[in-house]
Amino acid sequence: MTAPRFVAVAVPIPIRRLFSYRVPDSMEPGPVPGCRVRIPLGKRDVIGTVVLSPGDPPPDGARVRDIKEILDPEPAVGPDILKLTRFVSDYYLCSWGEAIEAALPPNPGNRRKVRYVARRAGTGPEQVPQRAVAKRRILESLPESGHPVPVAELPENDRNHLRALEKAGLVEITTVQADPAEPPGTVVVPPTDLVPTPAQVKVLEEIGPAIAGDDWSPFLLFGATGSGKTEVYLRAAEQTLAAGKGVIYLVPEIGLTPLLMQRLKGRFGSQVEVLHSRLSKSERFRAWARVKDGGCRFVVGTRSAVFAPVRDPGLLVVDEEHDPSYKQQETPRYNGRDLAVLRAREAGAVLILGSATPSMESFRHAGAGRYRLLRLGGRVGGRPMAAVQVVDMREEYRMKGEIQPMAEPLIEAISARLSRGEQTLILRNRRGYAVSVFCPACGNRIQCDHCSITLTWHRRDDRLRCHACDLQRRTPERCPHCEEPGLQFLGEGSEKIEDDLKHRFPQAAIARMDRDAVRRKGAHEALLNRFDAGGIDIMVGTQMIAKGHDFPGVTLVGILSADQSLGLPDFRAGERVFQLLTQVSGRAGRGEKPGEVVLQAFDPDHPVLLEAIRQDYEAFYNREVEYRRSLRYPPFTAMVQLLVSDRNPGKAAIWADQLAEAVRMEGQGRLIVNGPGLAPVERLRGKYRQQILVRSAGRRKMVDAVGRALERVDPGVPRRAVTVDVDPYSLL
Ligand code: ADP
Ligand code: ZN
């Protein structure tokens, strides 16, 4: 008999330790690191990943159970990704198993159909008896036919009632194929032979030797919107592939990729594979498997593509590296950009971070010589940046005695575009119709039942929605608080702006792009394609319209409430607004004709607006960096946000006190610890939230101290009550 073999297994649960299992003698050869295994844990079976072997036998007396099944004949997680995920676990204080789970595609299973459900037109909760509480609630919450929701999104208990409701003719259930082919209207453009501009040549001359070499070489590519950065990435990718190495190219959001994909497919054909979260499970799995097998060495995707099993990566590109969507807002709360930096360093690869508005972190690294700064300058072909016209809304109010969401200068500018057959983008960074519902009789603003957030009225389906937890409610006739009629709908969201435009310009083709408008799979791509083809004259939208699109037909960008977010209690508020304004302004005048931006604001003299209007990133950076330095905010410190939440506000407060105390002790006076105090959103999904902010110039020591503090308060402060966010991107 051979000696017993043990392996260490990482399990995707929020406990930061590994578990020992015995490999039964019948399993020959045993699993190697990177293989997934089915193991018993407590009363359940779970899937974990072998990370170390052979493990030391556990201490005497410990009861070690057997592995039940080896799921992968070959490791699903290669050595480089094992190392990367281990880093994620140390850096973001999650378990190694959770990090591995984020790195692997979801198990495809064999569900190939998706079921949707909606209320039949004209039906409602009144049609079931009062005591059928669950059925009434379901009917209450379901949208009417025409806007079906996936059955899988309903709570499990509710799903059990659907059959009966369907039989009663109250709801309709439709089944669609989960796996449609290419989104409709995708055209493949032939490869283009652009002659690089002198600025591109200069930049490529710096990158070229780095690609040919084997050393880690980080670059920050800084160039205005439309300066030809994408073209630089594509050429660098070509060179890397030609040198026999792999490429990972990250983009912030999938809205960006349909057009980019056309450009890529035209040039790289089947050499390139796209990975993102909106693919179906089986699509994702197929793409991932092809990359893993070495059938494809070029991956384009959103943040999780940083874990793509590309062999021997020689180039990592992070486009729009400042973009908040690189930060995952659930465990593990990693930043895809920062992991790209790490992966490139580990692989001895070239890294290109690109942006017109680099993050404060990256620009500071470049200033300190840690990244090589490449300046691409202005737009390709000397095309001018858009001229900006500022509309002082206070002035408008004084003149007119009231406020229209769109002032006269903007309306005139739109009319001019329509008569010339040019396109307009309007940014209104709030979705819904009315931002809040107010009762003038008692002063109440209708809030979510579960969150300290006012509900937004969506007119299309006449519902009130919480933008934090997605609660939906029928619009009441009377104030739920004082029962008086006369509710007022205040503040114009994107839906209202779309409506106003349709009234003003009945002959124009007008569309809206925000999270509501693109819920359906393929809707986003279809909208972009339609806009690109000239089928839309005016597109209204939230920050979604600001992202990297290249629409040559756009000559006007209107920005409503440009200064709205400047007052938010988040040290990054100014940076965010500057980025958004610069990015959206950059959508105007990318084609032959020059562009114009009309910006409406109540505080047009705010420095951030002035800098954005001049498109002067470095002026913004130089001012902002002093503010960050003097108040010791990132990038001068690293930050951890700890949120302690519970349904019982008293418990949340007590636990937060204990945790803050433990952090202070472990930090031995070397950390800045603010709080606990109420989080900016005090209540979310029914839980009260306390916030602790920890900062320090020394990241490693701080993160370790926070890790020890969490252990110290365990189990008095339940781990499930605490959210740990290292390098938080939004404090709201
Ligand atoms: P960015 O990524 O910096 O916003 P792009 O690479 O998308 O810029 O380029 C902006 C526009 O200029 C695109 O329409 C692109 O096709 C065009 N362009 C880029 N490089 C060249 C070039 N060398 N010659 C002609 N046009 C170019
Ligand atoms: Zn809510």
Automatic annotation (TrEMBL):
Gene Ontology molecular-function annotations: 3'-5' DNA helicase activity; ATP binding; DNA binding; hydrolase activity; zinc ion binding
SUPFAM superfamilies reported in the protein's UniProt record: P-loop containing nucleoside triphosphate hydrolases (SSF52540)
Summary of the function given for this chain in its UniProt record: Initiates the restart of stalled replication forks, which reloads the replicative helicase on sites other than the origin of replication. Recognizes and binds to abandoned replication forks and remodels them to uncover a helicase loading site. Promotes assembly of the primosome at these replication forks.
Quaternary structure and partners: Component of the replication restart primosome.
CDD domains assigned to the protein according to its UniProt record, in alphabetical order: DEXHc_priA, SF2_C_priA
Residues holding Zn(2+) 1: 439, 442, 479, 482
Family annotation (PROSITE patterns): HELICASE_ATP_BIND_1, HELICASE_CTER
Cofactor note: Binds 2 zinc ions per subunit.
Signal peptide range in chain numbering: none
Binding site for Zn(2+) 2: 448, 451, 466, 469
GO cellular component, one term: primosome complex
HAMAP family: PriA (MF_00983)
Family the UniProt entry places it in: Belongs to the helicase family. PriA subfamily.
Name by which UniProt lists this protein: Replication restart protein PriA
Keywords annotated in UniProt: ATP-binding, DNA replication, DNA-binding, Helicase, Hydrolase, Isomerase, Metal-binding, Nucleotide-binding, Primosome, Zinc
Cofactor(s) the protein requires to work: Zn(2+)
GO process annotations (BP): DNA recombination; DNA replication initiation; DNA replication, synthesis of primer; double-strand break repair
InterPro entries (UniProt xref): DEAD/DEAH_box_helicase_dom, Helicase_ATP-bd, Helicase_C-like, P-loop_NTPase, PriA, PriA_3primeBD, PriA_3primeBD_sf, PriA_C
Top-level EC class: isomerase
Catalyses which reaction(s): ATP + H2O = ADP + phosphate + H(+); Couples ATP hydrolysis with the unwinding of duplex DNA by translocating in the 3'-5' direction
E.C. number(s) listed in UniProt: 5.6.2.4
UniProt source species: Candidatus Polarisedimenticola svalbardensis
Chain ranges of the Helicase C-terminal domain: 474-628
Residue ranges of domain Helicase ATP-binding in the record: 210-376
